[in-house]
Write a structure and sequence with these properties.
Blueprint (H helix, E strand, L loop, with lengths): L3 E6 L4 H13 L3 E4 L10 H14 L4 E6 L3 H7 L7 E3 L3 H9 L5 E5 H18 L6 H11 L3
Parallel strand pairs: 1-2, 1-3, 3-5, 4-5
The structure holds D-ribose.
D-ribose (RB5) binds next to α3.
Length: about 150
């Protein structure tokens, strides 16, 4: 069965979320898109919570969140136990977030990175695996902080 990715945004992240969903499907992931599906103004914590909880519970392996800056989504997602959300504005950060931090939720700002770079950031995040080794101990310490 294909790995599952779950994606959500607010009204400021609609276009990049659509790109992110496309990139994830092209990369072979099964994608659950939690919306929103209109341009109506919504509150980013509602979508961050749905996505982060799905990842923390194991329903999805990775989460993708888009808002205007990516900041609100990352603050909100990191309040969910088990979520390690990384706010990334470059492909390098997205790769390192997976390699070293085992980040399981990517947060991006459509108004900051735009669609082209945004799609490349999503691709880098999805195609990179956690490196483990010495980083295992550090990620374990993050998990210990949630106890
Ligand atoms: C919405 O205007 C904007 O505040 C939101 O998308 C996000 O950037 C919050 O962090």
């Amino acid at each position: 069965m294909a790995d599952r990715v779950i994606a959500g945004s607010d009204h400021a992240g609609l276009s990049l979320r659509a790109e992110a969903v496309k990139v994830a499907r092209e990369a072979g992931f099964e994608v659950e898109d939690v919306g929103p599906f209109s341009g109506e103004s919504v509150d980013y914590p509602d979508y961050a919570r749905q996505v982060a909880e799905a990842v923390a519970s194991g329903r999805a392996r990775l989460g993708l969140l888009v808002c205007g800056t990516g900041i609100g989504m990352s603050i909100a997602a990191n309040k969910v136990k088990g979520a390690r959300a990384a706010h990334c504005a470059s492909e390098y950060e997205a790769r390192m977030a997976r390699l070293h931090n085992d980040a399981n939720v990517l947060c991006i700002g459509e108004r900051v990175v735009g669609l082209g770079l945004g799609a490349a950031i999503v691709k880098a995040f999805l195609e990179t695996r956690f490196e483990g080794g010495r980083h295992e101990r550090r990620v374990q310490k993050l998990k210990d902080m949630e106890k």
